[in-house]
Specification:
Low-confidence stretches: 12-19, 21-29
Strand order of the largest sheet: 3-2-1-4-5-6
Largest sheet: 6 strands, antiparallel
Shape: globular
Length: about 160
Amino acid sequence: MARRILDLNKPQQQSSSLLDATATQNKQTSKLDQMTMDRLLRKPRSKAYMDAIHKLDAGGHVHNKAKVDAIIDAIRQEFPEVEINGILLGYVAKCYLGKPYEVHTLDLSGQIIEHYKAGQPLPNGMEKARGLAMYGGYDFIEVYVDCLRAVSSDGTVSVVK
């Protein structure tokens, strides 16, 4: 009986284990990037950023594209190291315009500021932040795809998953 000297399956196994090792390394790198991003997003917010977000409650911003763009620019300046597109859905805050309005939002996907009446549903997964915005004692809520970040008046951030 002839004995095989070269096993043709070995290179495939090595190739497969190399791919597995690369995939594991990519997962670890991705996890590290996620940890770094989480750490950056936990940092207290700056006064300029807080002031820009507070301008959302002024009714005139709803139809003023330049003012909306200025607010979005302030958001980008606050997080220069993080690509927020796709992970930050928008903002929800208690509305002080008075009845019938309850909360207002900044939807980053459509760059729209909108004021919502009691019972009127919020778009794009932002409804989960309504109660926290209204009764949580926070200035505003940043709505991310995986969590909420509640921002206090002093800029400190609490993460709600």
